[in-house]
Predict the 3D structure of the following.
Amino acid sequence: MKKKFVCIICPNGCEIEVEYEGDKIVEIYGNLCDQGMEYVRGELFSPERGLTSLISVRNGVLPLVSVKTSKPIPKDRIFDVMDAIADIEVDAPIKIGDVVLKNILKTGADIMATKNVDRRG
Amino acid sequence: MNERSVDVAVIGGGPAGLSAALSAKKNGVDVLLIERNESLGGILNQCIHEGFGIELFKEALTGPEYMQRFIDEVENLKIPYMLNSMVLSVNDKRLIVCSPQGFLRVKAKSVVLAMGCRERTRGNICVPGDRPAGIYTAGCAQNLINLRNYMVGRKVVILGSGDIGLIMARRLTLEGASVLAVIEILPYSSGLSRNIVQCLEDYNIPLYLSHTVVDIKGERRVESITIAQVDEQWNPIPGTEKRMECDTLLLSVGLIPENELSRQAGIELHPVTAGAVVDEYLQTSVPGIFASGNVLHVHDVVDWVTLESELAGKSAAEYAKGVSFPESKISVIPGDGVRYVLPQRISGEKDVTLSLRVFCPGRDKKIIVKDGGKVVKKILKTRAVPSEMIRLSLKSKDLGGIKELRVEVE
């Protein structure tokens, strides 16, 4: 199988072409460094993404607090995690780094607040 | 009217203003930071995605995390700031501020302009068609979704592939909307590759290059839009029209530095950057008024806004202390392939970092700084694209006896 990628590790943005069979890279062209190869390997066989989203806040100066996963999660779990956090509510005040949910859907990633939201009034 | 005297007044409490205020304070002067909104941090409040701080902190922070580091420092250094306060006029270094406590006259020894930019609207780009509800600028939609908890639509088309448009394509998809397409008039995207991959390709959102929106239909709410392919002069090609049923159109079609105050203060503006013409101290044509961040030129990475504003804050502090700057006799001019270069004039007596943008995307390009026929500096860029600002530093020892610097792409 052949596939093309634009590497996003650094601003060089190498256009990489890769030939692979099963879970092995057979041939790779266009990458200026080994990080490009690692990027492509990750994208091909176990793509992961950091997820950022929002969670409802009770009694906050804002109705929402922004959150992120503490580490990247498998790409194909993104919508599952979005569903799992959809109905969660937290109480203000909340601070950057507060863990809202531990080990979300057993991905090993926590859902952490990325904003300070003070209590209203 | 109440009056207040201060060494340095900073207009705008976003990333540029925060950094300028901190830097001025650390250089030993009194600072007053004036913010129009109800909180500090500016646009970073609503930029909940990751990718801020990679240059400065070697971490991919979210916007709110990035801004909080600076807000905490402003609080720690007890820099006074006014919220919900809008500067109505700048006359030399005297400001009139409208605040919840009433009008205030601020007499400053120097001023940093850090008002940022705002989005181009439908009116700016003249999209024809009906005028129903459901047409938003991308940043407005981002504000409604990320700060106010309002969803803006269900079936969305995005015009413009700048970073805000790409980020919103992902946000809307995650929030349950269906993003039908991103439409870009240029033959290439104007967003970062990272965002093309992670905001569009990850969610199978098609990107139509060399296309634009030629019609909007809808009585009360958007019902459909029509796109068409464009030729090299951006004219729609008849016969290529394609109708898309949708309820929402987002516009991500560029940013304009917000320079009403600068214009009123009589500051010379540059026709390409739409920001002030500055010297290497980021001083505008009005002595003692400095500018930095998106009000000076639109940036793609906030880290550079922070660094640029550190310089503006330091310069403003020095000016307030009575330090005199050397005359900026050398013009810095964009040559072949360069859209703009900043600062537009330098003294040649100190090291300086130039910021520039190229016209067209290209690979293995040389960026050359020339004095007449003599090459002063040359850097090689594996990849040069208009959406990514290039920074290039020059040493004062290479700048002796120079009259004019020209920056070219080869």
About this structure: Residues 34-45 of chain A form the longest helix (12 residues). Chain A has two domains: 2-46, 52-113. Chain A touches chain B through 26 residues (CB under 8 Å). Residues 103 and 109 of chain A are 5 Å apart (CA to CA).
